[in-house]
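Appendix B. Worked example

We walk through a single record from start to finish. Start with the input: the chain for WD repeat protein, Aspergillus heteromorphus CBS 117.55, length 622.
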Amino acid sequence: MAQPDLTSHHVNYLIWRYLQESGHGEAALTLQRAWNLDPQSLSFAPYIKTHALVSLVQKGLQYHELEHSVDPDGNPTAFTSSDYFFGPAPLEPEPEKGRSGPGEAGVGTDQAPVSPTTSKVARDGGVINGHLTAEAAVPQPAASTSVKKARKSDRGEANGDEVPMDVDSNGVATENPPAADGSPATAEMAVDGDGDVSMGIRPDSQDQEPPAAAPPTFTLTTGHSVGVQITPAKAADLGPDTAILDVASADHVTRALWRPKDPTVVVAAGDSFCSLWKLSSSAAPVQEKLVENKGDSTCVSAVAWDPLGQKLAVATYNDMRGSITMYDVSGNAVDLLPEVPRMITGLHWAESGSHLIVVASDSRISELALWDDSLRPDEFPSPHVVDGSIFDLCWLGPNQAFASGNGIVYQCDVDSSIHVSKTFSSGNDRPWTFIRCVNAGTSSVAVTASSANATLWVPTHDILVDGAHEGDITAIELKPNMEQQPLQSLVLASSSTDDTVKVWHIDLESKTFNLIHRLFLGPTSPALASTFSPDGFALAAASKEGLFIWNAQRGGTPLATWKAPEREERKEKKEDDEMSSVVNGHNGTVESVPDRSLAWDTDGKKLAFGFGNQLAIVNLQR
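Next comes the structure step. The output line below is what the pipeline stores for this chain.
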């Protein structure tokens, strides 16, 4: 059976795996973002062994040597240093790099320990340009035995005068010192009949049972990024690649959301409007108005796309009743759900399927109802009623959800309806404003935050942190792809009006929050919104009229920034706001926190930033 044709996917996958195994997690993730967001889903991925690229290149170099060792008639010929694939000049040994350099104090702190069985390659010997650095007892074909021996004795070591090298766990080559007599260190490795090098297996263990193959190593779970992958000293300016849309006249953008798997459709919504924008690289953006301010008291209270991007649910409130209208991607109303007798404050689609949890809440009671869009009942399903307000809700898989209220977090089971199965009490009435959920191994984890109290709480594991920030918390976000991370590597970002975004490690076993990054936006620049990119590579935060993007692993200096251009009307409004501060707070004045929204598209290549009555579309592809 013939081997399949080599494609760019094969080559990219081998490079991607090599970068991970060498510890260059950031470079691997950059390749992943530009090529394939899920390389492990490729059909051939389960068959690729550890160090496959190195093994394949070694075989290629050995074939290159054999090809130049015989003439067209099959007779042995002299093989000199000028015939080496990489040329006769020796490669200068690279000085050993530390685990972190200047400005990299936090590098690698959210990575799992490196396994010594997979991180050390050729620990007691080296292979340079495909050649062993010392003799190994390997059976060779009789016709080429004399040629091989003569060639090895002529050069003494591989490809010139290089010093044999090791590869440490972060992919940095380190010098292997020669023996006392000046000869190269003895290489304790073997080569099989196909020319494969045994990766650090000593001769006396060759006849032992080989260890089980290590599972595939996922990006950013092993090693440390080194070399050129240092956060740039100066942040890139995103201004040239940003388009600004005027989406409202007198209202403010409070929500921005991309259509799933479609970077050409984005929705902007405020209290009195909702519009759908179709973007094009060759034409002006086209706006479809779904709800607009007609001078009545209708307000938009919630907006959400279904997981396939086929329907956009828009909740409105008027005359003490809430209603939900479904729109298609062209902006046409395709369905109207039954009304409910209170404001709909939340629309939450399951990650897959047709289930939508509808939250209707006021100051006295809240209702949780499960709508199945595939069944479309004539009446709204009977809700589960809880006392007090529900501030936020998140799904955890297809059959569980968590909701946060005043002093309580509710664990809900979802089947044909939704009902509370367990409650967690914080012992006080503080409002738990935000909640996020994740599965960590076999454990369900819910993380919530109280905005005004600047408190973080993990009710499922009884972890409470008071005074997490010096100002109000404006957003929390769990780093995506946690199912690929070990239990102790749960990562949370929290933003605050104290001008910072903080990145935490949550250790569920020791029940602690460990601060790993404190990202500063600048004086009087409150972080009003923050969110991770879909792959967890980047962390974005918004101030009043600025945007900051960091490498989520490294922190430090932002990778890129953007500042909204000053407009006369905005300048005048800012002056008016400063003159009309409300006399009711600390030191006699309190400044209201403006609404800001951030949303990544599915590919993580565009950001929608809602500020004032405008929406900035930031293109990150370059």
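Two observations about the output. The first helix runs from residue 8 to 21. The helical segments are 8-21, 25-35, 52-69, 116-119, 142-155, 568-579.
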